[in-house]
Design a protein that fits this description.
The structure holds 2 protein chains of 2 kinds. Chain A has 2 domains: about 40 residues; about 210 residues, MetI-like (MetI-like fold), CATH 1.10.3720. The longest helix of chain A has about 45 residues. Chain A is mainly α. In chain A, about 75% of the residues lie in helices and about 0% in strands. In chain B, the strands form 4 sheets. In chain B, strands 6-7-8-3-9-10 form a 6-stranded mixed β-sheet, with helices on both faces. In chain B, strands 13-12-11-14-20 form a 5-stranded antiparallel β-sheet. Chain B is α+β, with helices and mostly antiparallel strands. The mean pLDDT of chain B is about 90. The chains are: A mainly alpha, B alpha+beta. At the A-B interface, helix 8 and helix 9 of A face strand 6 and helix 2 of B.
Chain lengths: ~300, ~375
């Protein structure tokens, strides 16, 4: 009787099962990871896709069937929003206010962060602590006093006023993020530049800013998204229709009794485009900034 | 090229109990390679940074090339510095790193290109000029840092432990390269290190520092052969000089040292220098010792038990624990030396190889 083929020995059987188990667990692990990623992507992307489809459907179509694929693509809704509903103006207002606020915040924030990270002056940590503590408070609590201040200085209902408010809102977080990054730039770099003949300001401009670019790009994106979507301060501090920013413009489609869901979706798509472009442009830097540390 | 004179330099940090640098005075001759040597925290780097202009001078005077530069900014002192971390600008290519300092000085482009090219050829950086620092190996980064100093054509080169981030083989190669470079440029160089091998091999003179003060200045072998105190004696040499406490006694008009293990060592060389002293510290270099085994009788021998044997290949280090808790001595012997762990041995010290130090101050007592 020779039922067991001599070629199979028990040891090799053990080996192949072990390898199979390894393969299986490896596959399961990867599959599990993939499932989480897919789930999260769906969670984030489906609402976006839903809004995107709604942006080319009319409100009555949406009311009839909430989740349907567009039967007819109403691209003209974008023209209606842009031209008839004044979105061109809102877009320009948003761009002007947010871009200037982000530019000022970035420059001021980087300069302040560099100072706090590099120079030992009396009260350094006190300034840092005060800045940091202002992150902790919700911004809403300063709204009323801020309104009063702006009225006082003739900045109420002006884009400049809103820009300055945005700067003050975002500055503490920006300084906080950049300070911790700048503090990790080795002192030797500054000493070398000093010996090479560069002044303190030139060192900031030609060493700190380029070396800190990953962190700076991170703050640019975070600030831009935050301010681009900002509603509360804009709605309180601007009253003229032609000074409104995009979030308030979108709000105009919401009446007391009727909400023009279709046009809201169109407005949101218009608003979201710059953010997507900015993110695509800076995302690599963003990742670098978040995983930073390799300054050397 | 220029002479660098330090005249009674002090550095006080706010809140520090004592000055980081205390009354440091020495002169680096024009074209000389001077090494500042000492353990970490001895003030050598602070001294260098004061020469560079990166630290303010609390007291004293610093003269470079005949000009007092205490209040002159780093960029106007006409010095170049190579940092331990290399301090390459990470966002610039090698070529930009080399020319960054020249651009600021408004040197014309053709001249910059020529200097960069010449430095790159001296250091073998030709192929790397368009790379960024992160794409270079440690040795290459080190050479770029050197190149950045060379292109400046400064009066004085300052080095702050530039080799300590390199691996052992590269360190030896770069050491030789630096010596050749000094020879070639004939420039004044001040080099800070805690590595005595670097100091011995590279320096024309070395300045040993301890606790913020200058312990000794001299040519490397002179310092090695005649250390000014116990600190210098132990800092130079590997393994360090053996130091034993000893009592002095007079016998027949001649001084003798009595060690804790009962050995009696004649101190004829010192003649009347030891009058009135009762205790000294005895110093002996490991390479001067020889071991006699088995235990030989005789008064002029240290006795003890072998506590460790470390064969290093070319030589063997034998650690002997002396009798009567007198301490331990390390002998550096030929690799075939006959010594085994636990063996009783006698250690022979020729009188000519003995060093004497004051028991209280640690200062060397020189034989006349």
């Amino acid at each position: 009787m020779n039922a067991l083929p001599s070629a199979i020995n028990p040891a090799s059987v053990g080996l192949t099962t072990r390898r199979a188990t390894e393969l299986l667990t490896g596959w399961l692990r990867q599959g599990g990871l993939m499932a989480v990623v897919v789930l999260y992507t769906l969670f984030a992307a489906l609402p976006f896709g839903w809004i995107a489809t709604m942006s080319v459907r009319t409100t009555s179509e949406i009311s009839a069937r909430h989740f349907a694929w567009p039967e007819q693509w109403h691209w003209e809704k974008f023209r209606i929003a842009w031209v008839d509903s004044n979105f061109a103006q809102y877009f320009w207002n948003s761009a002007l206010v947010v871009v200037s606020a982000v530019a000022i915040v970035t420059l001021l924030g980087a300069a302040a962060a560099h100072c706090l990270a590099r120079y030992n002056f009396r009260g350094n940590r006190l300034v840092y602590f005060i800045l940091f503590s202002s992150i902790v408070f919700p911004p809403q609590i300063i709204l009323i006093s801020l309104f009063q201040v702006l009225v006082e200085y003739d900045l109420y209902n002006s884009r400049l006023g809103l820009t300055l408010v945005y700067v003050s809102l975002q500055l503490p977080m920006t300084v906080y993020l950049l300070e911790s990054f700048f503090a990790r730039i080795p002192q030797d770099l500054f000493d070398a530049a000093k010996i090479d003949g560069y002044s303190d300001f030139e060192i900031f401009w030609r060493i700190v800013l380029p070396v800190g670019m990953p962190a700076i790009a991170t703050t640019i994106i975070l600030n831009f998204i935050q301010l681009w979507n900002e509603f509360l301060f804009a709605v309180v501090l601007l009253s003229d229709q032609d000074k409104r920013t995009l979030p308030i413009g979108i709000r105009a489609y919401m009446g007391d009794y009727f909400q023009d869901i279709g046009m809201i979706a169109t407005g949101m798509m218009i608003a979201v485009i710059p953010v997507v472009i900015l993110y695509a442009f800076f995302s690599e830097k963003l990742i670098q900034g978040m995983t930073a540390g390799a300054v050397k | 090229m220029a002479e660098v004179q330090l005249q009674g330099l002090f550095k006080n940090y706010k809140g520090a109990a004592r000055p980081a640098v205390q009354d440091v005075s020495f002169t680096v001759q024009d074209g000389e390679f001077m090494v500042l040597l000492g353990p970490s925290g001895c003030g050598k780097s602070t001294t260098l940074r004061m020469i560079a202009g990166l630290e303010s001078i609390s007291d004293g005077q610093l003269v470079i090339g005949g000009r007092v530069v205490n209040e002159v900014a780093a960029k106007d002192r006409d010095i170049a510095m190579v940092f331990q971390s290399y301090a390459l600008y990470p966002h610039m290519t090698v070529a930009d790193n080399l020319s960054f300092g020249l651009r600021r000085r408004k040197i014309d482009e053709a001249q910059i290109a020529a200097r960069v090219k010449s430095a790159a050829s001296i250091l073998g950086l030709g192929e790397l000029l368009e790379r960024k620092p992160f794409a270079l190996s440690g040795g290459q980064r080190q050479r770029v840092a050197l190149g950045r100093a060379i292109v400046r054509e400064p009066q004085v080169f300052l080095f702050d432990e530039p080799l300590s981030n390199l691996d052992a083989a590269l360190r030896v190669a770069t050491r030789n390269e630096l010596v050749r470079l000094h020879h070639r440029l004939g420039a004044t160089m001040v080099y800070v290190t805690h590595d005595q091998v670097e100091a011995m091999t590279m320096g024309q003179r070395i300045c040993v520092m301890n606790g913020g003060q200058v312990a000794q200045i001299g040519r490397p072998l002179d310092v090695y052969k005649a250390p000014a105190d116990v600190f210098v004696a132990q800092f130079l040499g590997n393994p360090p000089m053996n130091i034993l406490a000893a009592q002095l006694q007079a016998a027949g008009g001649e001084a003798q040292a009595l060690t804790g293990d009962g050995a009696v060592l004649p101190l004829r060389r010192w003649r009347d220098r030891l009058a009135g002293m009762r205790a000294v510290k005895l110093g002996m270099r490991p390479e001067e010792l020889s071991i006699e085994s088995p235990d030989t009788a005789g008064p002029a021998l240290l006795r003890g038990v072998v506590a460790a044997v470390e064969p290093l290949g070319a030589e063997t280090l034998v650690n002997v624990m002396l009798d009567g808790n007198a301490g331990e001595v390390i002998a550096r012997l030929h690799r075939d030396a006959d010594a085994a762990l636990g063996q009783r041995v006698s250690v022979y010290v020729p009188e000519a190889a003995l060093y004497l130090f004051d028991a209280a101050t640690g200062k060397a007592i020189e034989a006349p």
